[in-house]
Amino acid sequence: MAAMGMKKGVLMLALGLAMAVTSSAVVYKVGDASGWTILGNVNYTDWTSKQNFRVGDTIEFTYPPGIHNVLEVNKADYHSCTNSTPIATHTSGDDKIVIKSPGHRFFICGVPGHCAAGQKLSIRVLKTRSSDAPSPAPAARSASAASPSPSGSTSTDPSGAGASASPPASSTDSTPDATTTTAPAPDANGAGVSAGHRAVVAAMALAAAASMAMLY
Known about the structure:
Layout: H1 2-24, E1 27-29, H2 44-49, E2 58-62, E3 70-73, H3 75-80, E4 88-90, E5 94-98, E6 103-108, E7 120-125, H4 143-146, H5 195-215
Parallel strand pairs: 1-2
Antiparallel strand pairs: 2-5, 3-4, 3-6, 6-7
């Protein structure tokens, strides 16, 4: 059951991320209303500088099919307008290219003379937009606000008198009182007989012995 719950959680997370990417993705129509063309002196470098491309976005090239095309090329071929070794070729007239990774990408029109006339596009794809950057962490709470009060402290009463007075000292002192009578030490047999008591017992024993002697 735990494994099934984990799989379900992972699936829900993946769906949520996919929805987030889809909802935030942007479709950029190259050249805006002018489209992909050599007419009107469209400055594609200027157009690109006003955009903010990122992974998940779509670049759309619109043009009359058969009149133009879109070749994705490397940096060197972009600058030299070389169309002989394209990375990819698009000819539909409504080419939608989804950006799947960050980096620098280059596109030209492969029709002879068109790239030299300015029909070329260079885009730099960022990992995230500046608006997607995480917010700075909130300021740390002050030590006095964050630190809990000591468990042994006494709360201040409403009257503002401060902490309650310390409890009275215990009535039983650890030092024995001077008037306390010390218990007699036990004798060899363990009986607690005082010295006076022993003297009385001895006197009684002597008297009893004398009486017995007189009887005999």
